[in-house]
Design brief:
255 residues, alpha+beta, Beta-Lactamase, two-stranded antiparallel ribbon, 18% strand, disordered N terminus
Length: 255
């Protein structure tokens, strides 16, 4: 019984630490103790102890002016081996370079963690005005191009659950209409976000498949809205789909 209690307590501590780390997002890179405590449902003293330990390990840093915390460079050492060993990332890199050269826009590789699209590689556009995001950015908006691609290959029951539970953010859009949109994405092989999540952004994403025929990632092109008209959008779709197909071929996909 003592061992069980110890194991249960240890598991609880790990969960609490992970909950604290999930409070840091691209939208909220700086978060205070009180904000974290309110979000995760822990006492402020418990949150302070967790943050103090994480700060010692450089997993978080404290901003001296605001006294709030941000994620630290220690996370890079933890995540580095994972990113380095993602086969799809290694295979995709030179093709993403070609995609950037062909379009003049930012080329991105995203993977799916079950409910969010996560960027694991990004080659920024060489133009002065460009659309970029922080590496590791997570997307759960249903109109995001990469999210559309991943959802179009989810099992129907899983898709229903994601939409019903609110794990995928959708504006006031009819669910049947959205499902029809995903069917079209799967049929043509790519998805478009033409200023739907941000009036300043255009995104085109296409699925990447491995030797088993499973969707493992998506290649994406991101560009400022103002310079993408209908002809430019057509070119983005063509180049992005082509890049995704090349990556898939190198991964052994025979489709």
């Amino acid at each position: 019984m003592t061992e069980l209690r110890s194991e249960s307590r240890g598991t609880s501590v790990i969960v609490n630490v992970l909950d604290v780390l999930r409070c840091f997002t691209v939208e909220r890179p700086l978060v205070g103790v009180t904000e974290i405590a309110d979000q995760v449902g822990l006492h402020k003293s418990s949150v302070s102890r967790i943050l103090a330990t994480l700060e010692q390990e450089q997993v978080v840093d404290r901003d001296e002016q605001t006294r709030k915390y941000r994620l630290g460079v220690g996370l890079i050492a933890i995540a580095g081996p994972l990113l380095a060993n993602l086969d799809v990332r290694q295979v995709a890199y030179p093709i993403l370079q070609e995609l950037r050269e062909a379009t003049g826009e930012t080329a991105v590789l995203n993977i799916w963690d079950g409910s969010e699209s996560v960027s694991v590689e990004q080659l920024p556009s060489l133009r002065l005005v460009k659309h970029t995001s922080v590496m590791g950015s997570r997307y759960r908006t249903g109109l995001s191009a990469s999210v559309q691609v991943f959802l179009s290959y989810e099992l129907p029951e899983r898709l229903t659950q994601l939409l019903a539970d609110g794990e995928i953010e959708l504006p006031d859009i009819d669910r049947d209409e959205y499902r029809a949109r995903l069917d079209l994405v799967r049929e043509r092989g790519y998805a478009v976000n033409y200023g739907e999540t941000s009036l300043e952004e255009v995104g085109v994403a296409a699925g990447v498949f491995d030797h088993r025929g499973e969707l493992v990632a998506c290649a994406m092109t991101a560009a400022p809205f103002y310079r993408i008209g209908s002809e430019e959008l057509e070119e983005l779709c063509r180049h992005t789909l082509s890049a995704a197909q090349k990556i898939s071929t190198r991964l052994g996909y025979q489709g």
